Amino acid sequence: MTFVRTAAALALLLLAGGCSSSNETRTAPRAAESADDRPPQDRAAAMQFFIDGSLKESKGQHAEAILDFQEALRADKNAAIHFALAKNYAALKRFVPAVENALEAVRLDSMKTEYRELLAQVYIHSGQFQKAAEAFRGVLRTDPGNTGAMFALAQLLERSRPAESLQLYEAILQKQGPSWEVLLQAAQLNSMLQRFDKAAEAFEQMLTLDPDNVSLKQSLADLYLRQRKFDRAMALVTDVLERNPDNDQLRATLADIYMQQNEWVLARKELERILASDSLDADLHFRIGLAFFSQALKDTLLVPDALGVFAGFDTAHPGDWRGALYLGVLHRQMKRDTLAERYLTRAATAANWNGDAWWQLGWVYFDRQDFLETIRTMNKAKMYVPDDFRVHLLLGIACNRAGLNDDSRVALERAHELNPQDVNVLSSLGLTYEALRMYAECDSAYERALRIDPDYALVLNNYAYSLSERNVQLERAMRMSKRSLEKDSANASYLDTYGWILYRLGRYEEALIYIRRAVELGDASPVVYEHLGDVYARLNRTEEAKRYWAKALEKDGKNKGLREKLERGRL
């Protein structure tokens, strides 16, 4: 028995079509299968009803056949009659009685594999896949070499138990030798399990069966590329391109090979050749755009080139939101907020289910410090992508910047529910809890963040600064701040934090070094200027203190405490 008969022919014969061939050989009920000793006349009657039912079944008269088989069953309780009933109930899509009769046939004759196969197929067609798998396991217990049952079981297990499914496919190959269909399933499963070497081996065997299959060679080249076996991938691709120079998909794969070897000039040559093709479809055009985009992330001089490719894509496919999304991202990268807003609004409108579009659009408004518009946009995004934690994260950060800390807390706590392991969410929660004077919650958020990533510089800095503001655990705060500076020694905020901790410890001369360096880096915040003024005041350098307090007040005119310090000329 081959797997083709079981997996395909059996399903079509018994269930999909429901009709039996008029030449099909029938198995009449045998006296040996009776549950009890029946008189000969009963067995003869059962045989006649069975024959009548089989003839009606062959004509597709399944309901009438069932009546005859039921009469046969009254005369002789027999596994073959239950099997016949199961087939005809299944043909009428009456799966409950089909299962009942198939189970009874198996119970009465557990060694008949076709009974178990029918039971499995009925389970499949009624959506009971776990039970179908167990039925096929029953076939294999009675007939371990049944490759048809192996194949059917392997197909059932592909999603739920891929490793076991793969073992079954490999067992079939060992028994039968190379088979295109089995090798394809094995290759796909190995690829899904990221066993790319095994997937490649399966494709290589398939190539021996069909050496001129171009699609197969392309799939194999992609697998070689994933394994960074560039020479093998190149050999396959160039071999096909010599005979099929207009195969744009393979030329794109060739460009990928060059890109992964940092040969951008060669890759670009291939990509531009594809762009000039008259048969360029949307997906391939977009793929080329992504290649330019990824290269532009490494070299900002290529941003205009990437813009050009996506502009061409957008012109050729104006209804495709992907072009608008990447045009928006690229324009945002070039600080062209108006164009970025226009394209990203288009993308978010056309693909409102796409969290990336909303995320990028929200950042356009946030970057221009329009926090209220950021909040409005993220609240709108929540209607379409309510479970995208990034939407709640950006909403929370914007609310914090707008002074709406209660709203910030709600948004960030929701972001944390959706993604408990995101350190940025926990860091933002720490800032918001601090603003609300919820110091226990603040410390807890930072501690959780550091358990996830002990060396995350932003959390180390923010936690250290929070402790210094409360004037607690200063030695620990200094250690954390020092670690953040080791990660980013030119960060003005980190320099200010370290200096401010030294200030809290009364080490004013040392504090001056770090806070002055933070100011010298440029674009210091009002807080940093105020800190520098405070340090000078502690060092009795009053005029310098007043100068930096004044600069702080220029940037933050609403700071009443700062104004009072400046007026009295001392702390």
Can you put this structure into words, describing what you see?
- This protein is mainly α and 571 residues long.
- It has a domain at 1-157: Tetratricopeptide repeat domain (Serine Threonine Protein Phosphatase 5, Tetratricopeptide repeat), CATH 1.25.40.
- The chain is 76% helix and 0% strand.
- The chain has helices spanning 3-16, 40-58, 62-75, 79-91, 95-108, 113-125, 129-142, 147-157, 162-176, 180-192, 196-209, 214-226, 230-243, 248-260, 264-275, 282-298, 303-316, 321-333, 337-350, 355-367, 371-384, 389-401, 405-418, 423-435, 439-452, 457-470, 474-487, 492-504, 508-520, 526-538, 542-555, 560-568.
- The protein is elongated, with a radius of gyration of 36 Å.
- The termini are far apart.
Provide a brief overview of the structure.
This protein is mostly helical and 571 residues long. The chain is built from 32 helices and no strands.
Which labels suit this protein?
571 residues; 32 helices; mainly alpha; elongated; Serine Threonine Protein Phosphatase 5, Tetratricopeptide repeat
Q: Secondary-structure blueprint of this entry?
A:
Blueprint: H1 3-16, H2 40-58, H3 62-75, H4 79-91, H5 95-108, H6 113-125, H7 129-142, H8 147-157, H9 162-176, H10 180-192, H11 196-209, H12 214-226, H13 230-243, H14 248-260, H15 264-275, H16 282-298, H17 303-316, H18 321-333, H19 337-350, H20 355-367, H21 371-384, H22 389-401, H23 405-418, H24 423-435, H25 439-452, H26 457-470, H27 474-487, H28 492-504, H29 508-520, H30 526-538, H31 542-555, H32 560-568
Helix pairs in contact: 1-6, 1-8, 2-3, 3-4, 4-5, 4-6, 5-6, 6-7, 7-8, 8-9, 9-10, 10-11, 11-12, 12-13, 12-14, 13-14, 14-15, 14-16, 15-16, 16-17, 17-18, 18-19, 18-20, 19-20, 20-21, 20-22, 21-22, 22-23, 22-24, 23-24, 24-25, 24-26, 25-26, 26-27, 26-28, 27-28, 28-29, 29-30, 30-31, 31-32
